[in-house]
Write a structure and sequence with these properties.
Length: about 260
C-alpha cells in the first residue's frame, strides 16, 4: 500500500473517531434523569440531574427544532431587515449612557442599564439554555402561545453535578415555584448550591415579539430575594437568540417594586 494512501486512511480514521467522540460528548438534556415533583393543572414541576461537562455550556446546538422554528418564523414574520434590527436592538450594550438621564419608567431604566453596558453581559444562548427553552417551546410555541418558565440551576461540588429545577405551565407567566423551592431548600441541606436562575422573555406583536434582555421591576425584586435567601450567584434571561447574565452583586442597581 502506498504511504500516501496509508496516511489518508489514518487521517480519515482519526477524523471519524474524533467526530464520534464529539457526538458522544454532546450534551442532550432530554436524555438526563428527570425527577417529577408534582403537577398543578397544566403546570409541571420537576428537576433534571446531570454531570458537569464542557458541552453543557458550549454554544447552542443546531437541530433544536422548536427554537429553530421560532427564530426562522420570527425572521419571516418581521422580514430580514427588521428581524436583524430587532435582534441587534436587544443584543447591543453600546447605547450612550446619557440616554438614561430622563428615563423614569422602572422597567425601561432596567433595560437601559443593560443596553448601555452598565450592568450584565449579553451573549448567544448556550446549549443548556437553548435546550431548556426548546423543551418549553415544543409544547407552547412562543409566537402563537407565549409562556415563561422558571429554571433554578444548582451545583453539587463533590458530585460535580448540576440540577435544573424546572417549572412551567400553559399560561403567559411562570407558575409559582413553591414545589421547586421546597425541593431546592431540602437539597441545599445536602450540599447543593443555587448558582443560577434562568427564565425567558417575550414581547407582544406590537413590540416585535422578541423578549427584552433585562429584568422587569418584578424580576429584580425576585432576584434580590434569591440573593438574600439562597446566595444565588447569577441570573439569566434569554429571548431565544441571546441571553443576558447578571451577577448578584449588581441586583441592587436595578429598579424594583
Amino acid at each position: 500500500m502506498k504511504p500516501s494512501l496509508i496516511l489518508y486512511l489514518l487521517l480519515f480514521v482519526g477524523i471519524t473517531s474524533s467526530w464520534l467522540i464529539i457526538q458522544q460528548d454532546d450534551f442532550n438534556l432530554l436524555k438526563q434523569p428527570k425527577t417529577g415533583l408534582g403537577r398543578e393543572g397544566a403546570a409541571e414541576f420537576f428537576f433534571w440531574e446531570f454531570q458537569d461537562q464542557a458541552s453543557v455550556w458550549s454554544n447552542a446546538p443546531k437541530g433544536l427544532t422548536a427554537v429553530q422554528s421560532f427564530q426562522d418564523s420570527l425572521e419571516k414574520l418581521l422580514g430580514v431587515v427588521q428581524f436583524q434590527r430587532v435582534v441587534k436592538k436587544e443584543q447591543t450594550q453600546r447605547n450612550p449612557k446619557d440616554s438614561m438621564v430622563y428615563v423614569k419608567n422602572g422597567d425601561h431604566y432596567n433595560a437601559m442599564l443593560v443596553h448601555t453596558g452598565a450592568v450584565g453581559k449579553v451573549r448567544p444562548m448556550n446549549s443548556l439554555e437553548a435546550q431548556i427553552l426548546n423543551y418549553q417551546l415544543e409544547k407552547y410555541p412562543l409566537l402563537t402561545r407565549p409562556t415563561e418558565f422558571h429554571a433554578f440551576i444548582a451545583y453539587h461540588q463533590e458530585r460535580k453535578a448540576y440540577r435544573v429545577y424546572f417549572g412551567s405551565s400553559d399560561q403567559p407567566w411562570p407558575p409559582k415555584p413553591v414545589l421547586l423551592i421546597h425541593q431546592l431548600e431540602e437539597d441545599i441541606k445536602n450540599g447543593w448550591k443555587l448558582r443560577y436562575h434562568l427564565h425567558n422573555h417575550y414581547e407582544p406583536p406590537g413590540n416585535n415579539y422578541l423578549g427584552i434582555l433585562a429584568p422587569s421591576m418584578a424580576d429584580a425584586q425576585y432576584y434580590k430575594m434569591l440573593a438574600d435567601n439562597y446566595q444565588i450567584e447569577q441570573t439569566l434571561i434569554t429571548n431565544g437568540i441571546h441571553t443576558v447574565e447578571i451577577k448578584a452583586a449588581d441586583f441592587g442597581r436595578f429598579e424594583s417594586h
